[in-house]
Amino acid sequence: MSDGTSRLGAAPGGKSKEYLRPVPSTWWLKRKTYFLFMVRELTCVAVGGYAALLLVLAASAHNPDSFHSVFSWLSASRWSVVLHAIALPLVLYHSITWFNLTPKAMVVWRGEERLSPVLIAGSNYVAWVVVSVLIAWIALR
């Protein structure tokens, strides 16, 4: 066509006009599943922050004075207690929901048969318990 539009209804310049439905910023509050999804996604901030804290502690381990000052702050500060009281449930929620999602993200076939989702998630929980017991045993001996 001579006016710059094609037969398929494209706008001038060859770009099509797409309808973009307006989505309110509170879309995730409309359903419980959306809300739980967003909470799970937000818990990754707590996981990352706690990982950064552990990296600071590990980086200070080469210098005994620096390590002692960071560790003494962690063990004596009220802010540290509050931080851990907030981080623990967030990290547990993140871990549990991640383990429950694993069978959906990782489909394992054994021949023609799909492996049970309970077995996949259960193996993650067993590994979590084994690693936790091993770390506790190393730390407390």
Characteristic terms for this protein:
two-stranded antiparallel ribbon, mainly alpha, 3% strand, 4 helices, 141 residues, single chain, 3 helical TM bundles of succinate and fumarate reductases
Descriptive notes:
- This protein has 141 residues and is an all-alpha fold.
- The protein has one domain: Fumarate reductase/succinate dehydrogenase, transmembrane subunit (3 helical TM bundles of succinate and fumarate reductases), CATH 1.20.1300.10.
- It contains 4 helices and 2 strands.
- Strands 1-2 form a two-stranded antiparallel ribbon.
- The N and C termini lie far apart (82 Å).
- The model has no long low-confidence stretch (mean pLDDT 87).
The side-by-side strand order for the widest beta sheet comes to 1-2
> How many distinct domains?
1
Per CATH, the superfamily is Fumarate reductase/succinate dehydrogenase, transmembrane subunit
- Element-level helix/strand string: HHHEEH
Please state the CA-atom Rg, rounded to the nearest Å. Answer: 25 Å
Percent in helix: 55-70%
The CATH architecture designation is Up-down Bundle
Rounded average pLDDT: 87
Q: What class would the helix/strand composition place it in?
A: mainly alpha
Globally, the shape reads extended
Q: How would you sum up this structure in a few lines?
A:
This protein has 141 residues and is mainly alpha-helical.
List the helices and strands and how they pair.
Layout: H1 32-59, H2 64-76, H3 78-105, E1 109-110, E2 113-114, H4 117-140
Antiparallel strand pairs: 1-2
Helix pairs in contact: 1-3, 2-3, 3-4
